[in-house]
């Protein structure tokens, strides 16, 4: 068995890791069958940010929170920024939502009617204005655009309209702002999706410029897809902007990252690290995009960032010199063993100790449960409408 690097050699890199939380993970979510509410669920954006700040307080891993517009629209984003900062977090990626308006039934940025396209582009302009107020650097675009039946619309014309719409949006960004285009192979459209895969996202963002990149949501691939290969390829091309982490058993399940397939998460993080994704100047940002349909949301997010951290630590422990050697010698089983040794390493005790040395709870899950915070929220947040996907 290969002896892994000592843990203290990886802490400097681990300390650099940050994972952005999605505001919507703290609201209620569900399936088309039922949305279950939970006592203590935030009623507004301010409360969602407070919950995200709690996750950061317990883990030291989540210093920023992504907003979704219009779900998180407020009158005064300067005030919202101050609110976040008071709680010890920053406002991060702005997600443009063009999937819940009647006008977008047949598309948004790809719509055949110029007036609807205008409306969708203007929504992104509004998101960019918000970014100026919040100091956010990333505008994230995920489109529900697509068709349900062959022949319903011209696949080509939609792609051309998308390119033109994205160009207008990209033009609006400041020199320090980025556009990240997310892909997803199906849903809500069932026949074709306008940005179904990394290749399409890559083609579209490459046409825009250097500050347009791809967002990889781990739940947005067909079963069996080798996601780590896509990670490597996008990084090789300098176009991987961010991750939306989650896990899935069947479709876009949005379950806790690392829950469904921890080994896949390890393989992805190994490629991230091997390709410089945790270097100081890395353009790759880590985010979660999850829903907690039946579990408590704050501990759900704590578990999630810990899963990413644990798997990052294991991936960092891969003995790269031994791996290089085994690969050069075509030692198939030896190379595989080097990788598996790191994957099988239990880093939890070392991480717990390291957290304590940094003034963080050794075991954030337990510390949160014992803090009584959840009960406190349930008592405080009475009345009003709980936040959700509306
Ligand atoms: C989409 C996609 C987006 C997210 C929405 C809520 O499936 O993953 O990133 O903003 O869901
Ligand atoms: Mn996503």
Question: How would you sum up this structure in a few lines?
Answer:
Helix 4 packs parallel to helix 5 and helix 5 (155-172) packs across helix 6. This protein has 14 helices and 10 strands. It has helices at 11-16, 45-59, 77-86, 114-134, 155-172, 198-208, 227-236, 262-274, 297-316, 320-328, 332-343, 348-357, 364-371, 373-380, and strands at 19-22, 64-69, 90-96, 138-141, 146-147, 178-182, 192-193, 212-217, 240-245, 285-288.
Q: Which secondary-structure class do the elements indicate?
A: alpha/beta
Head-to-tail CA distance between termini: 53 Å
User: Given the structure, what is the number of helices?
Assistant: 14
Largest sheet: 8 strands, parallel, barrel
In CATH terms, what is the architecture?
Answer: Alpha-Beta Barrel
CATH topology: TIM Barrel
Ligands in the model, by name, code or SMILES, are:
beta-L-rhamnopyranose, manganese (II) ion
Low-confidence region ranges: none
What is the count of β-strands?
Answer: 10
GO biological process, one term: L-lyxose metabolic process
InterPro entries: L-rhamnose_isomerase, Rhamnose_iso-rel, Xyl_isomerase-like_sf, Xyl_isomerase-like_TIM-brl
GO molecular function: L-rhamnose isomerase activity; metal ion binding
Pfam families: AP_endonuc_2
Fold topology:
Blueprint: H1 11-16, E1 19-22, H2 45-59, E2 64-69, H3 77-86, E3 90-96, H4 114-134, E4 138-141, E5 146-147, H5 155-172, E6 178-182, E7 192-193, H6 198-208, E8 212-217, H7 227-236, E9 240-245, H8 262-274, E10 285-288, H9 297-316, H10 320-328, H11 332-343, H12 348-357, H13 364-371, H14 373-380
Parallel strand pairs: 1-2, 1-10, 2-3, 3-4, 4-6, 6-8, 8-9, 9-10
Antiparallel strand pairs: 5-7
Helix pairs in contact: 2-9, 4-5, 5-6, 7-8, 8-9, 10-11
Bound molecules: beta-L-rhamnopyranose and manganese (II) ion (MN).
């Amino acid at each position: 068995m290969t002896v892994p690097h000592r843990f203290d050699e990886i802490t400097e890199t681990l300390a650099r890791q940050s994972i952005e939380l999605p505001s919507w993970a703290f609201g209620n979510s569900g399936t088309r069958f039922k949305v279950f509410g939970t006592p203590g669920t935030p009623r507004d954006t301010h409360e969602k940010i407070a919950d995200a700040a709690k996750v950061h307080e317990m883990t030291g891993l989540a210093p920023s929170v992504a907003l979704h517009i219009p779900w998180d629209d407020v009158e005064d984003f300067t005030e919202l920024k101050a609110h976040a900062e008071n709680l010890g977090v920053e406002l991060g990626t702005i997600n443009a939502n063009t999937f819940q308006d009647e006008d977008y039934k047949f598309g948004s940025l790809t719509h055949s009617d110029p007036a609807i396209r205008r409306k969708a582009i203007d929504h992104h302009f509004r998101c960019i204005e918000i970014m100026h107020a919040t100091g956010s650097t990333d505008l994230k675009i995920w489109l529900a655009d697509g068709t349900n039946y062959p022949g319903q619309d011209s696949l080509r014309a939609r792609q051309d309209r998308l390119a033109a719409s994205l160009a207008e949006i990209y033009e609006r960004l400041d020199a320090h702002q980025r556009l990240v285009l997310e892909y997803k192979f199906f849903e809500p459209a069932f026949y074709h999706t306008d940005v179904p895969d990394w290749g399409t996202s890559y083609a579209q963002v490459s046409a825009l410029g250097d500050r347009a990149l791809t967002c990889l949501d781990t739940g947005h691939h067909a079963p069996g897809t080798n996601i780590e290969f896509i990670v490597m390829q996008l990084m090789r091309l300098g176009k991987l902007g961010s991750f939306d982490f989650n896990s899935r058993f069947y479709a876009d399940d949005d379950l806790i990252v690392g829950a469904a397939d921890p080994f896949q998460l390890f393989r992805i993080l190994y490629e991230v690290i091997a390709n410089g994704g945790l270097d100081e100047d890395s353009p790759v940002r880590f985010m979660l995009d999850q829903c907690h349909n039946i579990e408590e949301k704050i501990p759900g997010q704590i578990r999630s960032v810990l899963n990413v951290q644990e798997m990052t630590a294991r991936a960092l422990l891969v003995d790269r010199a031994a791996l290089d050697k085994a690969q050069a010698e075509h030692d198939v089983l030896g190379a595989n063993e080097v990788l598996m040794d790191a994957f099988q390493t239990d880093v939890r005790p070392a991480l717990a100790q390291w957290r304590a040395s940094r003034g963080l709870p050794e075991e954030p899950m337990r510390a949160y449960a014992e803090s009584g915070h959840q009960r406190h929220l349930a008592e405080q947040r009475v009345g009003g409408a709980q936040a959700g996907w509306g």
